[in-house]
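Standup, Tuesday
Yesterday: got the pipeline producing structure tokens again.
Today: sanity-check two examples.
Blockers: none.

Example 1:
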Amino acid sequence: MQDSASKPNRLATLFLENRHLLVLFIMVTVVAGISAIQSLPRLEDPVITNRNPQVITLFPGATAERVEALVTEKIEQELKEIPEIKNIDTTSQAAVSVVAIELADEVTIESNEQIFSEIRDKLADAAAQFPEGVLPPDFDDKRNAVAYTLIVSLAWEDRRENTLGLINRLGEELADQLRAVSGTELVRMFGEPEEEIAVMLDEAEFTALGLTAGDLAAALRQADAKIPS
């Protein structure tokens, strides 16, 4: 015990008795510290590798159990075939499936785009197994750390008028203009309202014309220009 305790005392005594050695040790330590600081890589805006994408899939009207069995498990089974995926965390709620993906630590910014392409292919394979009514999976690969420099909120002063649709269109125009600004990486909209057109039927006139509500619905579907190719 005395030998182990005496070693630090001997080192301290050596520095106290030899001041030149103490000064030399301090100078070497300071120079090494300054050299290490100056050699550290520094960036004003460091690039962070995105390793945490997310997949959101909507199944309107479905219970959490159906979402888990018919959507979440299908996606999880397909994604497990990608070896670069480190962890998959799933959440199934009523009408919504959320799949959080964590890529392996060795994935770099040069290789993650290729992996994202493989994930999209697997999501397409999983979507082919979905039942009718499930919307296409939304692959969010922009969930990396970003600096939000501008947050804009649009509001209509005259609340007596129903202007949600107009605000939505103005918001989309503003988003397009902001995307054209140099240095803008990402523009997102939150809380945008969905527009709906209500068609009221005159039952007496429809009956006189020999038409039904199904005939009108079929005519509207045929006139819709948004039918997928």
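Example 2:
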Amino acid sequence: MEPITLATARLTLRALTAADVDAVYRACQDGAIQRWTTVPSPYRRADAEYFVNRVCPEGWQQGTEFTFGAVDAATAAPWWRRSVCRCARRGPRSSASGRPRSTAAGA
């Protein structure tokens, strides 16, 4: 399936691109994101690169997982803290980086 874009006057949901790697990396430095989601901890820039450049496109291509980044429609500024939305169509959810999460922090 080809990625789609959903837009309203204030918000745009779109597929992530290589330009989003830094924003995804910064968002995933949040301790709550690392504790309560499937991202690895610690979350490295290489994890963001793998997620954006490999996991997301493969999910769209295979029709199994559709990842959207939410951006402000007027400024294109990311709303990452609230909004990387992964919608799985079927099957198990893949890891956000391809590597296992650390359980050292009690996750």
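Quick observation on example 2: The radius of gyration is 14 Å. The first helix runs from residue 21 to 27.
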